[in-house]
Amino acid sequence: MIRAFHRWPGLLALALVTLLALSGAALSVFPAAEQLAAPQASADLSVATLAGRVQAAYPGVEQIRRAPSGRVTAYWFDQGTPGAAVIDPATGQGVASADPGQVQRWLTGLHRSLFLGDGGRLAMAAGAAAMLVLSLSGVALVARRTGGLRHWFTRLRGPLAGRLHVEIARIAVAGLLLSSVTALWMAASTFGLLPETGGAPAFPAAVSGQTGIAPAQIVTLTQTPVSTLRELSFPYPGDATDAFTLKTDRGTGYLDQGTGALLAWADLTAGQRMSETIYMLHTGQGAALLGLMLGLMALGVPVMAGTGVALWLSARRGRPRIRDNQPASQAETILLVGSEAGSTWGFAATLHEALTRAGQTVHVGPMSDFAPETYGRARRILLFAATYGDGAAPASAAGFLDRLERATPLPEIPMAVLGFGDRSFPAYCAFANAVTSAACAKGWEALLPPDTVDRQSPQDFARWGRALGQRLGLPLELSHQPVAPRTQTLTLLSRRDYGAEVQAPTAILRFALPRQSLWQRLTGAGFARFSAGDLIGILPDDGAAPRLYSLASGRRDGFVEIVVRKHPGGLVSSRLTALHPGETITAFLRPNPGFRPGRGKAPLILIGAGTGIGPLAGFLRANRRRPVHLFFGMRHPDSDFLYHSEIADWQAQGRLTRLVTAVSRGVKPHYVQDALHAEAAQVTQLIREGARVMVCGGRDMAAGVTEALAEILAPSGLTPAMLKAGGRYVEDVY
Amino acid sequence: MKSLLATLALTTALTLPGLALAKPVTLSTTLNAYGGEGAYLAYYVTDASGAYVGSLWMAGGKSKYYEHLGDWYRATGGDTAQVNGITGASVGSGRKLDVTLDLADALFDAGYTLHIDAAVEDMRDSPNEIAVPLTTDGAGKAVQGRRYIASFQYDM
């Protein structure tokens, strides 16, 4: 719901908001420039002295104005010709032209009304309103994503566009809120929607009738410092009924032109002060530094517009059209999707198609539409639940748990929950788990035990599909490819073989970099940009789901390297480990930004076993200055010590600080978790120093490592979960 | 065609016999190319003693800017009721404004003066930009303003 309040104003007012922000940012420079350029009055200068100086220089002076920037301007009449100049308060002489610059005027016209008069003003006010709605809904979205306003500046994960969008927003939103609220106030004032704020005092009924007092003699003016002056208007020459008009930051008054007496005075009303403050906050006139900051924040708007559209497009692309979707009242299978970015819909579409082909009637809808009383012919309910942030319901599942709580369980319609998530997050499938517990507590029968799909894994999904097929008595083979990958051909350069003696035939395969088109190089698509830890996907010949391998090299290394262990009966691993130099495979690249060492100089603790050494070796090869401690588990050092010679070189070059190996084949089997226990003191010390832990390998090993670290860290009050939440403990598990 | 009668009836200042006799008068104002935003112009009449009688036209719709039309604002206290129904758009730099009104015959050759106050955003205010006596002889004779008005004349 909130997302809709963010998306539609954002898309509809995209151009308008961007234009407002850019012109506003450009205008924000002027008050500061004016303040720097204008000759400033000394602190003790009185209006009387200033007026005397100006009158001496320009005897026909009519008005002296002081801008909030401190710039003093005089207007005069000389032999029938009007003149004006910026005044140096020290001399009373003009030093520069008083007319505002063409550029500033043009920008102001654009910013305020697109040069379209009142219609343009209304359009720009609508733009400001859109900006306000975007800011408020954006705050709500960021708070939801980070788990509350308290976590406003928490670390972000995910694709660059989304991160950039939020990183900029959470700084710029303060300025954008201020600018849009003040803009709407000013627009309301322009269109007379605000109450009148009161004006000058009534002109005095009687004046002395005398003329000719020098401004320097007027007591009120001698007591008024120039820093408080707004405007001093001189009486009309030859009109004895006129008077001096003085406006200061306190109010407005009239001074007798014969006696200098203060004839009338009105303080600024609260409304006027409010208006002036809002004008200052919006324009930066009188608050140049604030203006510059607001301008800088406004510059974030075009970037947020671009990344916002990119996010919207990618979410749209991720949500496929579902053909032959049955109405909920007619379908045997109700498939409900709780998805945030839209990727889970793709899985639903795949299942919908497979079930429909098998002769089933299927309805696919968002989890937020859950209404079991309308499911007239349903035999089962399937729930695909992603998780948002720290366990919250994703966008399309908003309100689901409430609806579930209110609904009466239908014993004849069992339910199955499949969670979608990313194991490297602490709240893995937390929402799916919440749904499962809630359904269980309400007494819904479970069609299948709850299951999960990690990082859109096609394998996980296919496995669950087979279980579902078995339960339904249908052969169900789900082949889902989240994004149709664009493959490129890789040619094998060299291979090194290990592990045959310990029944773990493993090869380090090094491929040549594929040629990149100019467009790919510009956009960083395909293999034009990758780093160790990213994944390459290889499609098996039978069209099943692709197998993913972690990259052991980055683009700068000039080659594509992976470590593959041959699995008995594994189609892809068999094909890969049978490759000879010169032969080719087709592969696609999938970025894995969550598994990178990141910048900084904090120590790294790399933990891997078997082929899990691959990305870790890539990190070591690219390391320059960081202390790195590698825990490497193998079967036997004489057989599957992958990267043996390189590791020795890296140690000699200072890329690797310390190597701890664990050997599992021997008299006393030793695993990486044992090695961690043995080095508990140093591990604790490193983590206290801010070390980042990166784990790569099989799922059992990763679980063992987490357990070992939990025990090791317990005395220091830290837990792996805390490290994960802080982004200091990441896993790449298969 | 706007009628001054209704407007002047709002003010107590002008209760002359023979007011019913009126004729169309065209006020033609051409602005200098001063190169700024649209100018606000207040057209109003004072009597022989200089007292405000009534307004004829207001070019410029946003009342929050009226205080910059200094003399008019001082005379009326910024009362927008003075220009209700006789308000039009502001006049762009170098542009011409023609307004035709039914003016009472009694306003002519009786010591009344027509004033125009002008103001432009971010530029100097120009109260009393024009001050011409309303006389039958003066009709059709162009006068120049102090800053913004290149020429002004009224034709009967």
UniProtKB/TrEMBL annotation, chain A:
Transmembrane segments annotated in the record for this chain: 122-143, 164-188, 287-313
Pfam family, one: Flavodoxin_1
Keyword tags: Flavoprotein, FMN, Membrane, Transmembrane, Transmembrane helix
Superkingdom per UniProt: Bacteria
Gene Ontology molecular function: flavin adenine dinucleotide binding; FMN binding; sulfite reductase (NADPH) activity
Record-linked PROSITE patterns: FAD_FR (PS51384), FLAVODOXIN_LIKE (PS50902)
Cross-referenced InterPro entries: FAD-bd_FR_type (IPR017927), Flavodoxin/NO_synth (IPR008254), Flavoprot_Pyr_Nucl_cyt_Rdtase (IPR001709), Flavoprotein-like_sf (IPR029039), FNR_nucleotide-bd (IPR039261), OxRdtase_FAD/NAD-bd (IPR001433), PepSY-ass_TM (IPR005625), Riboflavin_synthase-like_b-brl (IPR017938)
Gene3D superfamilies from the UniProt entry: 3.40.50.360, Nucleotide-binding domain of ferredoxin-NADP reductase (FNR) module, Translation factors
Domain FAD-binding FR-type intervals: 485-598
Enzyme class: oxidoreductase
Domain Flavodoxin-like stretches: 333-469
The EC number(s) this enzyme carries: 1.6.2.4
Assigned GO CC terms: cytosol
Keyword Membrane: yes
Stored PANTHER family: NADPH--CYTOCHROME P450 REDUCTASE, NITRIC OXIDE SYNTHASE-RELATED
Protein name, as recorded: NADPH--hemoprotein reductase
Native organism: Gemmobacter caeni
From TrEMBL, chain B:
Superkingdom classification of source: Bacteria
Keyword Signal: yes
Endpoints of the signal sequence: 1-22
This protein's UniProt keywords: Signal
InterPro entries: DUF2271 (IPR014469)
Protein name: Uncharacterized protein DUF2271
Organism expressing this protein natively: Gemmobacter caeni
Source taxonomy: Bacteria, Pseudomonadati, Pseudomonadota, Alphaproteobacteria, Rhodobacterales
